[in-house]
Write a structure and sequence with these properties.
Elements lengths: L3 E13 L3 E13 L3 E5 L6 H8 L7 E6 L2 E2 L5 H11 E5 L10 H12 L4 H14 L15 H13 L5 E5 L7 H18 L2 E5 L3 H5 L3 E6 L2 E2 L1
Helix pairs in contact: 3-4, 3-5, 5-6
Length: 224
């Protein structure tokens, strides 16, 4: 396998609301293994739309998408769901923790869904990730007992549970104060440095972006 984790060739996307409007224009880009990349640009430039295409959650586009140098474009939904589970971890602006489950269960959920490991093994892996993020002492707490920064750390642990090829973040520090934003950045940076984890983060935070390995700037649906 080569070094490219994600690659797009001539990726274009249209919205039809109420008239045909091109939101992404011929995007050619690639992200290598172990890179920490940020995508920046004004609101409405297509950053989040691009992320949803790269994550395979939106399949209505023109052009080609490759993950780990395999063509993903045109694959059936069931296969895409499996590719997502195995290869992509997500961290959003809102942590999306399920309120009825404790921290440990929330982290375990994608691992249980993938079904690659036994419940005991998934639990062990979840605890290891919580340990890495300094959250193991919160494992049995419910999400409503945590601060915003703690919730986002749990969301990162959940994103890591299946050893994803890439972690994608959509404004993961958008809801956090400076101190917690820095903490999340440091966690991401450590993952890249120590685990060679690939990260692609859409952000409005210019301080955050400046400290990543590479910045992709978008304007009017294009990479500039």
């Amino acid at each position: 396998m080569g070094n490219k984790v994600i690659e797009t060739i001539g990726l274009s996307k249209y919205f039809f609301d109420p008239i045909k409007f091109q939101v992404l224009k011929e995007i050619n880009m690639s992200i290598d293994h172990g890179e920490f990349v940020s995508i920046v640009g004004k609101s409405g430039c297509g950053k989040s739309t691009l992320l949803y295409l790269l994550s395979t959650m939106d399949t209505d586009y023109e052009g080609h998408l490759l993950i780990h140098e395999k063509l993903i474009t045109g694959k059936p939904d069931k296969e895409l769901a499996q590719i997502r589970s195995e290869n992509i971890g997500f961290v959003f602006q809102f942590h999306y923790l399920l309120s009825e489950y404790n921290v440990l269960k929330n982290v375990m959920l994608p691992g249980m869904k993938l079904g690659k490991y036994s419940q005991k093994e998934v639990e062990h892996r979840a605890m290891e990730h919580l340990k890495t993020l300094d959250m193991e002492d919160q494992a049995l707490k419910m999400p409503n007992q945590l601060s915003g920064g703690q919730k986002q750390r749990v969301a990162i642990a959940r994103a890591l549970i299946n050893d994803p090829l890439i972690i994608m973040g959509d404004e993961p520090t958008g809801n956090l104060d400076k101190k917690n934003s820095d903490l999340v950045f440091d966690i991401f940076n450590k993952l890249t440095q120590e685990n060679n984890q690939t990260l692609l983060i859409v952000t409005h935070d210019s301080d955050f972006a400046k400290r990543t390995n590479r910045i992709i700037t978008m304007e009017d649906g294009r990479i500039v």
